[in-house]
Structure formats: C-alpha cells, structure tokens
Amino acid sequence: MLRRTVCSMLVLFATTAGAQIRRQPQSFNNDPDYWVGLSLGYVDGITLSDERTTALWQMGYAAQIRATLEKTFGRGATVGVAAGFSTVPLTYYDEEIFSVGCKGCRADADINQYTAFVRIGGGTGFHGVYQLEGGVTQFTNFRARDSGDSVDPRSGAYDGTVGFGGGAAYGLSRTSDIYVTEMLDFVFHRQGPEVEQRAPRMFTLRGGFRFGF
Fold first, then answer.
1. SS3 of residue 115 by DSSP
2. DSSP symbols for 78-126
3. For the chain, does the N or the C end have fewer beta carbons within 10 angstroms?
C-alpha cells in the first residue's frame, strides 16, 4: 500500500513538473537580424615617415564619416563591415629636397578605412559597447593646398589595420540606438628610418546611430 502511494505521488509530481516546464516561456533572441548605421568621427592627427616617397607627413585632425552593416549572431552581439572616409590637412616634407627649402608644404590627403568588426553590447536604455576590428587603411590622393597639383603618392597602398575600443550607447527601442565610442587603431604602414619603428596609432572618437531590421 505504501509502495503504491509513493509511486502515485512520483507520477503526479513528474506530470506536474513536466506541465510547468512546458508552460515556461522559452528564451530567445529578439534582436533584429541586421543593423545599418552611420557615424561622424573625430580623427586625431598622426605623423608618418613614408618609405616609398621618403616624405614626412604631419597630419592634423579631421572629421570622418563611417557607414556600417551588421549581422546579429547573439543577444546584443553583432559582426559587421564598415567603410570610413576622411580628408585631412597635413604639412608635407619631401625629404629628398628638404635641405633645398621644402620646409612645410601645405597639402591635403584622403584616408579611406575598410574594416570588419565584432560589436558586443545591446538592449534598451543605457549600456556599454565594446568593439574589436581589423582591416585596411589607405592614405591616398595627396594634393598641394594652394595649387591643387597631385603629390606622391597619388594612389596609396592598403595598410593592415587592427583596433579596439568601446563606449556608451542608449537603446531608443529594440530596433534603434545611439552611441559614442572611442577607437584605437594600429596602422602597419611602411615607414622610413627617420621615425621610431612602431605601428602608427590612430585615435578616433565617434558618435552615431543604428537601425535594425
């Protein structure tokens, strides 16, 4: 009799527990499958000694516009691609004729950056974001400020680039947010012997928005 009662209680407990498990909501990722974004950034100035042209580039700060496309692979986590463009003012020293008098030729150049990245951080309200990226950076389209004449290199090489950073974001809704991040990129540009042999570092402060779909 006792055995039958115990067995009946076990069967009842198992049935009740199974029903409760089935009634529990299943966890799922309700983030959008894709995101598109646009940001405006501040790129700090850097100095490069170019091995190919033997010129020294003292670049000032500049604005950068950057577009992104991302694919969600987990809760608050995406993998994406980005393209950033900026035009920077610089002082151009041609080292081959430096002693003759080219001491500070004013010029402009374009910086194009193409990267793939992983972004962690999402949700509504305030939250942190962290990013790791890798790709290429191109210094190109050098031209004299006064005359507009082309200056070497007319078509720059693509330099390997890796970077990391983070910041803060605010989720306006499940499908939109705004953010401010700071990135540190190491650009592996082939430099001349006149500078310390280490990868140039680019600091970029960005503010932007994303929309999910």
1. strand
2. EEEEEEEEEEEEEEEEEGGGGGGT---EEEEEEEEEEEEEEEE---SEE
3. N
CA-to-CA dists, residue 206 to 10, 184, 209, angstroms:
61, 11, 10
Pairing of strands 77-94, 105-120: antiparallel
Q: Name the one residue in this structure whose structure tokens are 């694919």.
A: 71
Residue 174: φ, ψ to 5° = -65, -25
Q: What are the tokens at 41? A: 């950034």
- The third-level CATH classification (topology) of the domain covering 33-212 is Porin (2.40.160)
Compute the distance between CA of residue 45 and CA of residue 20 in angstroms, rounded to an integer. 61
pTM for this prediction: 0.80
φ, ψ for residue 155, nearest 5 deg: -130, 105
pLDDT tens digits, 73-110? 999 999 999 999 999 999 988 765 443 445 568 999 99
Please, what sign has the CA dihedral across residues 150, 184, 135, 69? Answer: negative
Other CB atoms within 10 Å distance of the CB of residue 188: 13
Whether the pLDDT of residue 173 is over 60: the answer is yes
Give residue 76's identity as a one-letter amino acid code.
G
The number of CA neighbours under 13 Å toward the Cβ of 202 is 31
Residues 6+ apart with CB under 8 A from 104: 91, 93
Gap between the Cα atoms of 207 and 115, Å rounded: 17
Task: Write down the domain spans for the chain.
Answer: 33-212
Distance in angstroms (rounded) separating the CA atoms of residues 204 and 74 = 27
- Answer for the pair 145, 108: CB distance below 8 angstroms, yes or no: yes
Neighbours of 73 (CB within 10 A): 12
